[in-house]
User: Fold these one by one.
Assistant:
Number 1:
Amino acid sequence: MPKPLALSWAVKMSRADSMVALDSLMDDWYVLMEADRGLHAAVGFDSSMEHRDWDGAKGSIERTYGRSSRDHQGTLDTLAAAIQCKRMLRSSAVR
Protein backbone atom coordinates (compact mmCIF):
# COMPACT_ATOMS: atom_id res chain seq x y z
CA MET A 1 0.00 0.00 0.00
CA PRO A 2 1.48 3.40 -0.94
CA LYS A 3 2.41 5.79 1.80
CA PRO A 4 -0.11 8.66 2.16
CA LEU A 5 1.02 11.92 0.60
CA ALA A 6 2.28 14.42 3.15
CA LEU A 7 0.93 17.85 2.28
CA SER A 8 3.20 20.85 2.52
CA TRP A 9 2.27 23.56 4.99
CA ALA A 10 1.55 25.90 2.06
CA VAL A 11 -1.01 23.44 0.68
CA LYS A 12 -2.55 22.99 4.13
CA MET A 13 -2.87 26.79 4.49
CA SER A 14 -4.47 27.15 1.08
CA ARG A 15 -7.11 24.55 1.98
CA ALA A 16 -8.24 26.17 5.24
CA ASP A 17 -11.99 26.69 5.10
CA SER A 18 -12.31 29.25 7.90
CA MET A 19 -10.25 31.85 9.71
CA VAL A 20 -10.38 29.68 12.83
CA ALA A 21 -8.88 26.77 10.89
CA LEU A 22 -6.25 29.02 9.28
CA ASP A 23 -5.26 30.55 12.63
CA SER A 24 -4.94 27.07 14.13
CA LEU A 25 -2.76 25.87 11.25
CA MET A 26 -0.56 28.96 11.52
CA ASP A 27 -0.19 28.42 15.27
CA ASP A 28 0.91 24.81 14.68
CA TRP A 29 3.31 25.88 11.92
CA TYR A 30 4.82 28.67 14.01
CA VAL A 31 5.55 26.27 16.88
CA LEU A 32 7.64 24.23 14.42
CA MET A 33 9.31 27.39 13.07
CA GLU A 34 10.35 28.56 16.54
CA ALA A 35 13.15 25.99 16.44
CA ASP A 36 14.63 27.65 13.33
CA ARG A 37 16.98 30.22 14.79
CA GLY A 38 17.68 31.64 11.32
CA LEU A 39 14.16 32.98 11.09
CA HIS A 40 14.51 34.71 14.42
CA ALA A 41 17.41 36.71 12.99
CA ALA A 42 14.92 38.28 10.58
CA VAL A 43 14.10 41.58 12.28
CA GLY A 44 10.43 41.69 13.19
CA PHE A 45 9.58 38.08 12.32
CA ASP A 46 8.63 36.99 15.84
CA SER A 47 6.62 40.09 16.71
CA SER A 48 4.81 39.94 13.36
CA MET A 49 3.90 36.29 13.90
CA GLU A 50 2.72 36.97 17.46
CA HIS A 51 0.43 39.71 16.12
CA ARG A 52 -0.76 37.51 13.22
CA ASP A 53 0.75 40.01 10.79
CA TRP A 54 1.77 37.44 8.20
CA ASP A 55 2.53 40.10 5.59
CA GLY A 56 4.95 41.65 8.06
CA ALA A 57 6.57 38.30 8.86
CA LYS A 58 7.01 37.56 5.15
CA GLY A 59 8.46 41.03 4.59
CA SER A 60 10.95 40.61 7.43
CA ILE A 61 12.29 37.41 5.86
CA GLU A 62 12.46 39.04 2.43
CA ARG A 63 14.32 42.08 3.81
CA THR A 64 16.77 39.92 5.74
CA TYR A 65 17.42 37.08 3.30
CA GLY A 66 16.00 38.26 -0.03
CA ARG A 67 12.86 37.28 -1.91
CA SER A 68 14.46 34.32 -3.61
CA SER A 69 16.19 32.80 -0.58
CA ARG A 70 16.39 29.08 -1.25
CA ASP A 71 16.90 28.37 2.45
CA HIS A 72 13.62 30.02 3.35
CA GLN A 73 11.53 29.39 0.22
CA GLY A 74 9.20 26.96 2.00
CA THR A 75 8.59 29.52 4.72
CA LEU A 76 7.90 32.26 2.19
CA ASP A 77 5.54 29.94 0.28
CA THR A 78 3.68 29.04 3.47
CA LEU A 79 3.27 32.67 4.48
CA ALA A 80 2.15 33.62 0.96
CA ALA A 81 -0.46 30.82 0.99
CA ALA A 82 -1.74 31.91 4.41
CA ILE A 83 -1.94 35.55 3.30
CA GLN A 84 -3.84 34.62 0.13
CA CYS A 85 -6.21 32.30 2.00
CA LYS A 86 -6.87 34.99 4.62
CA ARG A 87 -7.76 37.48 1.87
CA MET A 88 -10.08 34.98 0.19
CA LEU A 89 -11.81 34.05 3.44
CA ARG A 90 -12.33 37.70 4.32
CA SER A 91 -13.65 38.59 0.88
CA SER A 92 -16.10 35.66 0.92
CA ALA A 93 -17.32 36.72 4.38
CA VAL A 94 -18.10 40.22 3.08
CA ARG A 95 -20.28 38.98 0.24
Note: Helices lie at 9-14, 19-33, 37-40, 45-50, 54-65, 73-94.
Number 2:
Amino acid sequence: MPFCFTARHIKRPVMRDVRLPKKFMRITISLILILAFSSANSQSPEHGTVIKSKNASWKVWDINTMKWGDIESFWSRYADSKGGLTWKRSNTYPKYDNVKEFDTLLIELKQGTCLMEFFHSRWRRANDVRRWDDAFNEYGGCPYVFD
Protein backbone atom coordinates (compact mmCIF):
# COMPACT_ATOMS: atom_id res chain seq x y z
CA MET A 1 0.00 0.00 0.00
CA PRO A 2 1.41 3.40 -0.97
CA PHE A 3 2.24 5.93 1.71
CA CYS A 4 -0.37 8.63 2.13
CA PHE A 5 0.69 11.80 3.87
CA THR A 6 -1.96 13.20 6.19
CA ALA A 7 -2.06 15.87 8.82
CA ARG A 8 -1.95 13.27 11.57
CA HIS A 9 1.63 12.44 10.64
CA ILE A 10 2.83 15.98 11.47
CA LYS A 11 4.27 16.24 14.90
CA ARG A 12 2.95 19.21 16.73
CA PRO A 13 5.02 20.91 19.40
CA VAL A 14 3.84 20.21 22.86
CA MET A 15 2.34 23.37 24.32
CA ARG A 16 2.95 23.66 27.94
CA ASP A 17 0.53 25.60 29.98
CA VAL A 18 2.43 28.81 30.59
CA ARG A 19 0.41 30.98 32.86
CA LEU A 20 1.77 33.89 34.72
CA PRO A 21 0.66 34.18 38.29
CA LYS A 22 -2.31 36.50 38.73
CA LYS A 23 -0.41 38.58 41.26
CA PHE A 24 2.36 39.26 38.74
CA MET A 25 -0.16 40.30 36.08
CA ARG A 26 -1.94 42.65 38.50
CA ILE A 27 1.31 44.32 39.49
CA THR A 28 2.40 44.70 35.87
CA ILE A 29 -0.90 46.24 34.79
CA SER A 30 -0.93 48.52 37.83
CA LEU A 31 2.56 49.80 37.05
CA ILE A 32 1.65 50.48 33.43
CA LEU A 33 -1.43 52.46 34.47
CA ILE A 34 0.43 54.42 37.14
CA LEU A 35 3.19 55.36 34.73
CA ALA A 36 0.72 56.36 32.03
CA PHE A 37 -1.31 58.62 34.30
CA SER A 38 1.62 60.12 36.20
CA SER A 39 3.43 61.17 33.02
CA ALA A 40 0.26 62.74 31.64
CA ASN A 41 -0.30 64.79 34.79
CA SER A 42 3.32 65.79 35.40
CA GLN A 43 3.72 67.90 32.28
CA SER A 44 4.74 71.44 33.10
CA PRO A 45 2.89 74.39 31.58
CA GLU A 46 4.06 75.82 28.29
CA HIS A 47 6.86 78.39 28.50
CA GLY A 48 5.38 81.86 28.97
CA THR A 49 1.97 80.74 30.26
CA VAL A 50 0.43 83.49 32.41
CA ILE A 51 -1.87 83.19 35.42
CA LYS A 52 -3.71 86.47 35.99
CA SER A 53 -4.89 87.47 39.43
CA LYS A 54 -7.03 90.37 40.59
CA ASN A 55 -4.35 91.81 42.87
CA ALA A 56 -2.03 92.47 39.88
CA SER A 57 0.54 89.85 40.91
CA TRP A 58 0.41 87.91 37.68
CA LYS A 59 2.61 84.82 37.43
CA VAL A 60 4.35 83.43 34.38
CA TRP A 61 5.87 79.96 33.89
CA ASP A 62 9.55 80.01 32.96
CA ILE A 63 10.77 76.71 31.53
CA ASN A 64 14.40 77.72 32.20
CA THR A 65 13.88 77.97 35.97
CA MET A 66 10.96 75.50 36.08
CA LYS A 67 9.16 77.99 38.34
CA TRP A 68 6.35 80.49 38.35
CA GLY A 69 7.60 84.07 38.65
CA ASP A 70 6.61 87.66 38.01
CA ILE A 71 6.42 89.02 34.47
CA GLU A 72 9.19 91.60 34.79
CA SER A 73 11.64 88.96 36.04
CA PHE A 74 10.61 86.76 33.10
CA TRP A 75 11.34 89.64 30.72
CA SER A 76 14.67 90.28 32.45
CA ARG A 77 15.74 86.63 32.09
CA TYR A 78 14.69 86.68 28.43
CA ALA A 79 16.69 89.86 27.76
CA ASP A 80 19.68 88.46 29.70
CA SER A 81 19.60 85.33 27.53
CA LYS A 82 20.10 87.62 24.53
CA GLY A 83 22.93 89.60 26.15
CA GLY A 84 20.80 92.01 28.20
CA LEU A 85 18.55 94.91 27.33
CA THR A 86 20.05 96.70 24.34
CA TRP A 87 18.48 100.06 25.23
CA LYS A 88 17.90 99.57 29.00
CA ARG A 89 14.78 101.15 30.57
CA SER A 90 13.45 104.33 29.08
CA ASN A 91 10.30 106.35 28.58
CA THR A 92 11.33 107.26 25.01
CA TYR A 93 12.24 105.15 22.02
CA PRO A 94 15.81 105.40 20.66
CA LYS A 95 16.48 106.99 17.28
CA TYR A 96 15.42 104.73 14.46
CA ASP A 97 18.83 104.96 12.71
CA ASN A 98 20.60 103.57 15.81
CA VAL A 99 18.41 100.49 16.24
CA LYS A 100 19.19 97.01 14.92
CA GLU A 101 17.05 93.91 14.40
CA PHE A 102 16.21 92.13 17.71
CA ASP A 103 17.29 95.06 19.91
CA THR A 104 15.32 95.15 23.17
CA LEU A 105 13.97 98.00 25.28
CA LEU A 106 11.92 98.09 28.46
CA ILE A 107 9.60 101.00 27.75
CA GLU A 108 8.24 102.84 30.79
CA LEU A 109 4.83 104.44 30.52
CA LYS A 110 2.62 105.92 33.24
CA GLN A 111 0.52 102.70 33.09
CA GLY A 112 3.57 100.47 33.61
CA THR A 113 6.40 98.85 31.66
CA CYS A 114 6.48 96.68 28.57
CA LEU A 115 9.31 94.75 26.95
CA MET A 116 9.75 95.81 23.35
CA GLU A 117 11.76 94.12 20.61
CA PHE A 118 12.80 95.65 17.29
CA PHE A 119 11.61 93.22 14.64
CA HIS A 120 11.11 93.62 10.89
CA SER A 121 11.98 97.32 10.89
CA ARG A 122 9.81 98.46 13.78
CA TRP A 123 9.34 98.23 17.54
CA ARG A 124 6.92 95.52 18.63
CA ARG A 125 5.89 94.13 21.97
CA ALA A 126 8.22 91.22 22.70
CA ASN A 127 5.18 88.98 23.09
CA ASP A 128 4.08 89.84 19.54
CA VAL A 129 7.46 88.57 18.34
CA ARG A 130 7.91 85.62 20.71
CA ARG A 131 4.23 84.57 21.08
CA TRP A 132 4.30 83.58 24.74
CA ASP A 133 0.80 84.19 26.13
CA ASP A 134 -1.72 86.76 24.92
CA ALA A 135 -2.06 87.98 28.51
CA PHE A 136 1.36 89.69 28.21
CA ASN A 137 -0.27 92.26 25.93
CA GLU A 138 -2.65 93.20 28.76
CA TYR A 139 0.09 93.65 31.37
CA GLY A 140 1.46 96.98 32.60
CA GLY A 141 2.08 99.43 29.78
CA CYS A 142 1.78 96.87 26.97
CA PRO A 143 -1.78 97.83 25.93
CA TYR A 144 -0.65 101.47 25.59
CA VAL A 145 2.73 101.29 23.81
CA PHE A 146 1.28 102.32 20.46
CA ASP A 147 -0.97 105.15 21.73
Note: The longest strand covers residues 112-119.
